[in-house]
Amino acid sequence: MEKYECVCGYVYDPADGDPDNGVEPGTSFTDLPGEWVCPICGASQDNFKKLD
Amino acid sequence: MYKPIEIADRIYSVGCRDWDIRDFHGYSTYEGTTYNAFLILGEKNILIDTVKEKFADEFLSNISKIIDPKKIDIVISNHTEMDHSGAIPRLMQVIGEEKPLYCSKMGAKNLKSHFNRDFNFKVVGSGDELKIGDRTFSFLETRMLHWPDSMFTYLVEDAILFSSDAFGQHYSGDKFFDDEIGDEIIPHARKYYANILLHFSPRVQALLKDVAKMNLKINMICPDHGILWRENPSKIIEAYDKWSRQEPANKVVVIFDSMWDSTTKMARSITSGIESEDVAVRLMNTRKWHRSDIMTEIIEAGAIAVGSPTLNNGIFPVIADVMTYIKGLRPQNKIAAAFGSYGWSGEAVKILNNEFSEMKLDIIDEGIKVQYVPDEDDLNKCFDLGVKIAKTLKQKLSGGKDGQ
User: Fold this and answer.
1) CA angle (B16, B20, B21) in 5-degree steps
2) B183 and B221 part of one domain
3) How confident is residue A42, by pLDDT bands cut at 50, 70 and 90?
4) Are B264 and B223 part of one and the same domain?
5) With contact defined as beta carbons under 8 Å apart, do B331 and B299 qualify?
6) Do B106 and A9 touch (CB under 8 A)?
7) How many pairs of residues across A and B have Cβ atoms under 8 Å apart?
8) Does A10 touch chain B (CB under 8 A)?
9) Cα dist. B89→B107, B115, B223, B245, B322 in Å?
10) pLDDT by residue (tens digit) across B129-152?
11) pLDDT higher than threshold 50 for residue B402
């Protein structure tokens, strides 16, 4: 699954998910709940870019 | 002019003092600030951080008192915000454009964007080391403390932590070290934390845990603003631990504004109610207190009460300013209540409650709105709201104690 990078440099890796914020490992970026924001800087999902 | 100070063997503080600044992007700086930068002499001469662009000449002159700036071999940028990077282009022009500039990945991105040009970047991350002669510089990325690029540089042999903005204070006086100023500096450090770092408190907690695990010996902490912590660096680390835990305290901040003193009367009655329960209270009129001072009080409180008149079907503009500011800094574990006088429609209390709810504060009452001027009955209700806030807070605090 594809990784996405936030403007702050944080990378969302679906393999890891974001368990601290209720996102199970294995969750693709596009399946993240709408209210999920970057756990590092608080930016919303539209601030993320797909990594090549 | 700033007389460079040798802070350790062949290590100099060469930054500049900004005596005049009173508004630091919306943060009141009654005692100005300093832009600290550090020159480390050795087999190669290394500079950590720079100053605001307008102080570039003064900065170069400070360095010249120690060495010819052209003899600087390496620049490390711990933080790219303009008050620390503004002088980089001028510096590089003087010392040589080809000189390496060490920074984080996001640091390189930011500097390119700030100055619309490239530098000879050497990108480093956590754990990377730069060994030069008898000195070892170890890097630790501290992303979002408080910018994406932020990092610490730890000088291993001298056990000095160059901490960029973390542990800083906006203070420009005649003192340079914690042992010279004593506890007088703590309110400045608290204000800095409340206004610059509070919203990243979970990151601060994570960082403190990481640093504890690394078991670093720290002789001195050198932030990019204010005094340096050399006598007791653990004092500011402990303070950061306390502030970042955001544990509620036995204090209420009542924040209000008023058009015809009706909301003022309500605020005073609420304050009396809080005091009657022996809970500390601070009454802050938003047109008398700067938003950054209000924020500094809030981090040491367990509850806030916010009062706003209704103006043009909304909350009062000055209250909106303060609420936007507080919301962005994300205070946690606070009790909240709203109040306000109105003329005909009276939306303010509802709007404030919505804001509290979005801020995830614990709303303990639907709030009190009074049409036009509060009468005795209304003021008694306000007093009772103050009592309720104080009692709920005390209950919460004693519950917390039982749990420990």
Assistant:
1) 90
2) yes
3) confident
4) no
5) yes
6) yes
7) 17
8) yes
9) 15, 8, 22, 39, 36
10) 999 999 999 999 999 999 999 999
11) no
- Residues of B annotated as catalytic (active site), given as ranges: 25, 79, 81, 83, 146, 165, 192, 225
CB B176 within 8 A of CB B183: no
CATH number, domain of B241, equals 3.60.15.10
Q: Rounded to a whole number, what is the distance in Å from the CA of B105 to chain A's nearest CA?
A: 8
B327 touches chain A (CB under 8 A): no
Q: Is A40–B143 a contact, with Cβ atoms under 8 angstroms apart?
A: yes
Does residue B356 carry a pLDDT above 80? yes
Does any domain span residue B400?
no
Q: What is the pTM of this model?
A: 0.94
Contact across the interface for A40 and B105, Cβ inside 8 Å? no
In the three-class reduction of DSSP (H, G, I as helix; E, B as strand; rest coil), residue B339 is classed as strand
Question: Within this chain, do residues B15 and B62 fall inside the same structural domain, yes or no?
Answer: yes
Domain presence at residue B304: yes
Contact residues on chain A for B148, CB-CB shorter than 8 A:
7-9, 41
Q: Name the domain boundary from B245, B279, B299.
A: B245
The closest of B52, B8, B7 to B34, measured between CA atoms, is: B52
User: Among residues B252, B286, B289, which one has the least CA distance to residue B364?
Assistant: B252
3-state secondary structure of B333: coil
Helical spans, DSSP H, in B17-79: 56-64
Closest chain A CA to residue B197: A41
- What's the CATH code of the domain at B346? 3.40.50.360
B402 lies in some domain: no
User: Which residues touch B404 (CB under 8 Å, ≥6 apart)?
Assistant: none
Q: Which residues of B touch A41 (CB under 8 A)?
A: 143-144, 148
Query: Same structural domain for residues B127 and B241?
Result: yes
Pairwise CA distance, residues B234 & B204, whole Å: 15
Q: Which of B223, B216, B221, B53 is nearest to B138 (CA)?
A: B216
In which domain, by residue range, is B29 found?
A: 5-245
**Does A34 reach chain B within 8 Å, measured CB to CB?**
no
**Is residue B67 domain-resident?**
yes
Whether residues B276 and B342 share a domain: the answer is yes
Contact B284, B319 (CB under 8 A): no
> Which 3 state secondary structure label does DSSP give A1?
coil
State whether B236 and B128 are in the same domain. Answer: yes
**C-alpha–C-alpha distance, residues B277 and B252, integer Å:** 11
Total domains present in chain B: 2
Residues B21 and B163 in one domain: yes
What ipTM was reported for this prediction?
A: 0.79
Q: Which of B179, B213, B245 is the last residue of a domain?
A: B245
Contacts of A42 in chain B (CB under 8 A): 199
